[in-house]
Specification:
With 299 residues, this protein is mainly α. It has one domain (3-285): ABC transporter involved in vitamin B12 uptake, BtuC, CATH 1.10.3470. It is built from eleven helices and two strands; from the N terminus they run ααααββααααααα. It has helices at 3-34, 41-57, 62-89, 95-120, 148-170, 172-182, 184-189, 194-216, 226-241, 246-266, 273-285, and strands at 138-141, 144-147. A two-stranded antiparallel sheet has the order 1-2. α2 (41-57) runs parallel beside α4 (95-120), α6 (172-182) crosses α8 and α9 runs parallel beside α11.
């Protein structure tokens, strides 16, 4: 393998890994505060990708389109918590209440898939580039061609995770989330609205899916069935990185993306299989993830 090819594969893998990290970070924050995750997180990404496609097709300015997508996904996160999560809390003592959220969030995912299929069909769609004039805009660096979109996706994802980490550990809302995660009853006595915190974490997770959906469009073709793949890979990334550490999730996502890129180059037929097997080995050896034991975790 030539050095130029290796660098291009590395860049592409980091870009996809950054997307996985964003989706996995959404799983992390909901699990932290509610011990639940949205099994439709990848389908929220898919919905955001198609909403971006629809808004940009109208000629809407990019920043306005992104804001609309973020607001729409935030509303979807609020509805998900109120309709698919909170009603089950009243039945937590029963098996249905304890695990019914798996079925309800997966059901929302299937509803989103069918709505998008009714509008766009099952065929794949191409999204226009976000930051350049064409999807194949290449930046030459020391004789190596790097795709501009991939570089900017990496930067954007890292910035979002850094801001998220600052939010969690440096702001009052972030500390409230950790207080609810540690002890909801004590948090209520301190004047923290546990209900509002639980709504907030699902809204934040949906906004992270919105950012990932906006960024993924120029990298791959989008289709209604893509959500499940991203949900599964995000769960793997969160498990490998450590469910208690957002920076660990970022590093785990980048590692998984690079491994996937290199593996597909080496064996296009079974390229997706090898990173999954490697992830299973890592989880078997380190059940808490590569960075889980060194994380700041209140529980």
């Amino acid at each position: 393998m030539q050095i130029a090819t290796a660098i291009q594969l590395l860049t592409g893998g980091l870009a996809m890994g950054a997307i996985y990290s964003l989706v996995a970070t959404g799983l992390y924050i909901t699990h932290l505060a509610t011990e639940r995750v949205n099994f439709g997180q990848g389908d929220f990404l898919m919905a955001a990708a198609f909403l971006t496609l629809a808004t940009r097709a109208t000629g809407m300015p990019l920043i306005v389109a992104i804001c609309l997508v973020v607001v729409a996904l935030g509303i979807m996160g609020w509805l998900l918590e109120r309709i698919a999560i909170r009603p089950l809390d009243r039945q937590r003592a029963s098996p249905i209440g304890a695990y019914g959220w798996i079925l309800t969030t997966a059901g929302v995912a299937f509803i989103l898939q069918n709505i998008v299929e009714l509008i766009y069909g099952k065929s794949s769609q191409y999204s226009p580039p976000l930051f350049s004039d064409s999807r194949d805009n290449v930046l030459q660096v020391m004789g190596v061609g790097l795709v501009v979109e991939e570089l900017l996706v990496i930067v954007a994802a890292v910035v979002v995770v850094v801001l998220f980490y600052w939010f969690m550990f440096r702001t009052r809302w972030g500390k409230s989330i950790y207080a609810v995660a540690f002890n909801p009853e004590a948090a209520s006595l301190l004047g923290i609205s546990t209900g509002n915190v639980k709504i907030a974490v699902f809204v934040i997770a949906s906004i992270l899916a919105a950012v990932a959906g906006v960024l993924i469009g120029p990298l791959v073709t989008v289709h209604p069935q893509m959500g499940l793949i991203f949900t599964i890979k995000a769960l793997i990334v969160a498990a490998v990185g450590g469910f208690s550490n957002p920076f660990g999730i970022l590093i785990g996502g980048l590692m998984f993306g690079v491994a996937e890129s290199m593996s597909n180059y080496a064996d296009s037929s079974f390229g997706d299989l090898y990173p999954l097997l490697a992830a299973l080995v890592i989880i078997a050896i380190w059940p808490s993830g590569l960075f889980g034991e060194r994380a700041r975790d209140v529980r």
